[in-house]
Amino acid sequence: MTSPERIEGHGGELALAALRAYGVTEMFTLSGGHVFPLYDAAHKTGFPIFDVRHEQSAVFAAEAVAKLQRRPGLAVLTAGPGVTNGISGLTSAYFNGSPVLVIGGRAPAFRWGSGSLQEIDHLPLVAPVTKYAATVGSGEEIPGAVAAALTAALTAHRGPAFLDLPLEVIFSAADADALAAPDVPKMEPDPDEVARAAQLIASAERPVIIAGSDVYAGGAVAALREAAEALHVPVFANGMGRGALPPEHQLAFAKSRRTALTGADVIVVIGTPLDFRLSFGDFGGAQVVHIVDAPTQRASHVTPAVSPAGDLRLILSALADYEGVREDHAEWIAKLRMAEDAAKARDAEEMAAETDPIRPARVYGELRKVLARDAVTIGDGGDFVSYAGKYLEPAEPGTWLDPGPYGCLGTGMGYAMGARITYPDRQVCVLMGDGAAGFSLMDAESLARQGLPVVIVVGNNGIWGLEKHPMRAMYGYDVAADLQPELRYDDVVKALGGAGETVAKASELGPALARAFDAGVPYVVNVLTDPADAYPRSSNLA
CA–CA distance from 216 to each of 98, 207, 225, 283 (Å)? Predict the structure, then answer.
């Protein structure tokens, strides 16, 4: 029997060798002395390091890589405040099912309790929002700990993992067995549950599919199309499920969701939770089929008619192969198409509005003219990004990034970094509210310094739109809901090494966007939008 290959070096070298075995190809970080050996290992082997100005951006960049490339993303954070600054990013990855690994520095174990710099036990803080969290006790344990963490992160339902390395562990020399390629288990669904789901969908008169992010994350886009086409069921999408069917597909719908959800008799929700975005799974009299990638994702607050759990490719392929009696859904699809076309006509009028101040709809009307089919669009905001969800229609899967159900603002610059690194030659466009700009716009400097051009469209209405208007409706007044009007976010980014301009008239939008996509640097189109134009939606906070 051949002995396993041994690797030796300091803790950073052992960790990096293990990370490479699991397909990690870059590191996102903010410099910190507790993790110097990881930098040393990367520097000596040509492993790319991308650094940021706030640790949350490092985790969001790692999450963007994990989402877009469907493999682990890595963030390296120094001890104490480095880790705590990254917890919002970890939590977003947890809610989004993103396989992110955060490696944290840690004060030395041999002096624990003596008051070392940045000494705090991270695990109780991160354990609730990770699938795996551990402190590594010795250098020899590092490769195995990396393997355990990343296997957990990649196993459905995917999610983040955390390791911290005490100072003496990461700086000391050791040797250990090298890792083989990962073997991530695949979950087989219960065939009886899948058969019940198929029969229910096929026999429905007015079925609807809602496809979520896990369809893309689980590599099930092709299987979704096969199932929808075989059963002839209209498809709506949210999150990274958007673009799973291109907008021109006969079964792709986006604008007629209200008609669909109020008229359907069977609603098939695939790869997304029954949360506030989907009325908490309450669709009146419709039966719900909830298809998830792991039993842990089954809803506990409602009881679906059936809920198959397992590898989504296997489940959807089995639905496509269903051989039982099927209802003809042509009349139902025609009804939805009429509603869809009517809504598109209304949207076209709104997106062409010549009003000044500029209405957000017009911003997206102009963007639709310049965005390529494979452009990556990133939403970081509340009110302004809500319009993006309404007016933009991703044409390809894996091209839409938003904060997800946790709703954490500040993702924009980190997601932009991860997207630009993933796709060096594609358009990358961040759609940012002026409120959200306060969380991460400083990291435009990180993009500029490291030669990572993106376009940043700021919807600048000078208010927190999702708070100001509802608060005035509830109380007759508002507080803590105003921002500085007409703030020059473009000048901020210019000072950070990028470029940009402010747009105050609708007729100026098209030329400004054209300049932005040709600029070759981080470029802000700072659009002064109408503060009275609030996105119409009801509250689903409860």
Answer: 11, 22, 12, 25
